Amino acid sequence: MGSTSDVYSVLKGQLKDTEAEVLTPDNAGYAESIERWSEHCEKKAQAVVKATSAQEISTTLNFARTNKIPFVVRGGGHSTSGSSSIDDGFVIDLSKMRKVTVDPSAKTITAEGGTTWEDVDVEAAKYKLATVGGTVNHTGVGGLTLGGGYGYLTGRYGLTIDNLISVDIVLASGELVTASSTSHADLFWAVRGAGQNFGVVTTFTFQGHDQPDPVFAGTLVFLPDKLPQIVEYANKFHTTNDGNQALLWGFSCPPPANAPVILTQCFYNGPEVKGKEFFADLINLGPIANMASMIPYEKLNSLLNQSAGFDGRKQFGGGAFKLPLNPAFVQSLHQDFLDFVNSHERMNESLLLFETIPYKKVGEVPNEAMAFSNRGDYYNVATCFKWFDPALDREVKEFSRGLLKRASQTAGVVQDENVRSVEGVGVYGNYANNDAAASEIYGSNAKKLEELKHRYDPDNLFSRSLRLVPRPLVVVN
Question: Which of 36, 37, 283, 316 is buried deepest, with most CB atoms within 10 A?
Answer without folding.
Answer: 37
